[in-house]
């Protein structure tokens, strides 16, 4: 990863009980990329330095949640309290969690999670 986007600001580790493995957290200016055995497992984007491509749409920090209404209508209808979840694949237990501002509806963070 560092060959692609440079050296992280900091690196820390934690233990994930759900998968019973140690995770390495690479912090890049408040954006976190989490690795297990050198493989990207999860991430949290909090700045406009990075974006996430979802099909033909590019999701970016600072864009507006309303832009997702026509692209992910089911997820949009079920959003609440400043959060919207988009399932990646049915039965895959992974999703993208989008945090948005309740006043101006701008996207504050984009996170890959498991459930």
Task: Spell out the key features of this protein.
115 residues; mainly beta; seven-stranded antiparallel β-sheet; 2 helices; 49% strand; globular
Short account of what is shown:
Helix content is about 10%, strand content about 50%. It has about 120 residues and is mainly beta.
Protein described:
With 115 residues, the chain is mainly β. The protein is built from two helices and nine strands. The protein has helices at 2-5, 73-77, and strands at 10-16, 21-28, 31-36, 39-45, 51-54, 57-60, 83-87, 94-100, 107-114. A seven-stranded antiparallel sheet has the order 1-2-3-4-9-8-7, with no helix packed on it. A hairpin with a 2-residue loop joins strand 2 (21-28) and strand 3. The longest helix has 5 residues, at 73-77. The radius of gyration is 15 Å and the shape is globular. The relative contact order is 0.15. The mean pLDDT is 91.
């Amino acid at each position: 990863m560092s060959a692609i986007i440079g050296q992280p600001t900091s690196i820390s580790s934690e233990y994930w009980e759900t998968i019973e493995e140690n995770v390495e957290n690479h912090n890049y200016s408040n954006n976190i990329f989490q690795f297990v055995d050198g493989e990207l497992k999860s991430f949290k984007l909090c700045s406009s330095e990075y974006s996430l491509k979802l099909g033909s749409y590019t999701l970016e920090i600072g864009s507006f949640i309303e832009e997702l209404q026509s692209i992910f209508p089911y997820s949009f209808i079920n959003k609440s309290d400043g959060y919207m979840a988009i399932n990646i694949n049915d039965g895959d237990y992974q999703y993208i969690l989008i945090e948005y501002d309740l006043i101006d509806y701008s996207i504050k963070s984009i996170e890959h999670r498991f459930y």
